[in-house]
Design a protein that fits this description.
Growth Hormone, Chain: A; globular
């Protein structure tokens, strides 16, 4: 072996050792991804009690869900760009620090205004999921990264599933502030782990002269991008209407039990996991447009059935929550296909398209959820809840059909 060959081999070995030494544990990244979405719905069973504690209108308290999502949408759009410039570790540590302070602020808030400000600040945790994906991509080979993405997605999906049950149980035994105490403790744990394990994360080289506004303009001028993004936004709107309205409209059927309410609300994320599994299993065999139409039809049929049951006077818990499982199944099928379609608009702007689509999906869904919350506050009935969810689901179906027609023309 020549001296050059030995030097090259030594350099490769040194790089491998450094990567192994700086690669964070998968459990830490799973914690970051789960913590990024856990606060979204963990407090949902507590919304009526928060409204009572602050003597505030339920529609105003519901902003703790919609406002959180709006801030998250903004941060999703810029979080990746910031981490590209300053590195993954500073972004994660800053986000966690703000999240910890915000969680403590929610515990100590003396009025609804202060509470909503700190609740919005909690949304700084949102970009940690996408940063965790980037860290895996940078520290793993292709096959290993694909496997870790799967585990990360499981944590990301399971957190909203157990969140309402966990939060409802804490509320029932210790009061609604206990959820924010637990979130602060989890944030501190994640901060300490990240301080120790994200030392090797550095900012990649990027072109600072790139005109990002022009890139966004090119994407927004594409009807294909709009079709897929509107489908995702309206699909998320169905979910947000359910999350904000179910505690007020269906909660009475459970005798006021926050724990039981959290359990039944967790059926929707369970449906999302099933839908995501089906998308992964059959997504490569079926056209994107067809998947979207099937997904949105399933949701519309399920909600129409639920509306029919509620109009017939049935008050059984499963008759009310069972049809809502199709919200999760439909969204689980929709999001992978619609994201793929939105990111395929421009091959040179995949990352930009992903960030913009995520921001529009979250903000659009939050807007629809806020409008739905206003109607539910005026008429807090199960019929109203199902009608509003069905309207948003039908809009998503129309967007899916539009996307399918665009796909066929291409």
């Amino acid at each position: 072996m020549t001296r050059t060959e030995r030097s090259s081999k030594q350099a490769i070995d040194d790089t491998t050792v450094r990567q192994a030494a700086t690669q964070p544990r998968l459990t830490t990244l799973i914690l970051l991804s789960a913590l990024a979405v856990l606060p979204v719905n963990m407090i949902l069973p507590s919304l009526p009690k928060i409204s009572t504690a602050f003597h505030a209108d339920f529609a105003l308290v519901n902003l703790s869900v919609a406002g959180f999502s709006i801030v998250t949408a903004f941060l999703e759009a810029i979080g990746g760009a910031i981490s590209d410039r300053f590195g993954r570790r500073p972004v994660v540590l800053t986000a966690l620090a703000i999240f910890i302070v915000a969680s403590i602020g929610c515990v100590l808030a003396p009025d609804i205004g202060t509470f909503l400000v700190f609740r919005s600040m909690q949304a700084c945790i949102g970009p940690c999921y996408s940063v965790a994906l980037v860290i895996i991509k940078e520290t793993s080979d292709e096959r290993e990264a694909a496997s870790k993405f799967g585990y990360l997605a499981m944590g990301w999906a399971l957190a909203p599933m157990v969140g309402p049950l966990f939060g409802g149980s804490l509320d029932e035994f210790f009061g609604w502030r206990a959820s924010f105490v637990v979130l602060a403790i989890l944030g501190i744990a994640a901060f300490l782990l990240s301080m120790r394990e994200l030392k090797g994360s550095k900012a990649p080289t990027s072109n600072g002269r790139r005109n990002y506004l022009a890139s966004y303009g090119q994407l927004l001028s594409s009807t294909q991008f709009w079709a897929y993004t509107l489908c995702m936004a309206c699909s998320m709107g169905v979910l947000y209407i359910f999350l904000g309205g179910a505690p007020l409209t269906i909660g009475d059927a459970l005798g006021g039990s926050s724990a039981m309410l959290g359990f039944y609300m967790g059926l929707v994320p369970a449906g999302f996991i099933l839908g995501s599994y089906l998308a992964g299993r059959y997504g490569a065999k079926i056209p994107l447009g067809t998947i979207l139409v099937i997904a949105r039809l399933l949701t519309c049929i399920g909600l129409a059935f639920g509306l029919a049951l509620s109009l017939s006077g049935m008050t059984e818990v499963l008759a009310l929550f069972g049809p809502c499982v199709f919200i999760g199944i439909g969204n689980g099928l929709t999001m992978p296909a619609a994201n793929s379609g939105a990111m395929s608009v421009r091959s040179d702007m995949v990352g930009t398209a992903a960030g913009l689509a995520a921001a529009m999906r979250i903000s659009g869904g939050a807007l629809i959820g806020s409008i739905g919350g206003l109607f539910i506050a005026q008429s807090a009935t199960i019929h109203t809840l199902f009608v509003l969810m069905l309207v948003s689901a039908l809009l998503a179906l129309l967007a899916a059909i539009w996307a399918t027609l665009i796909e066929k023309r291409r």
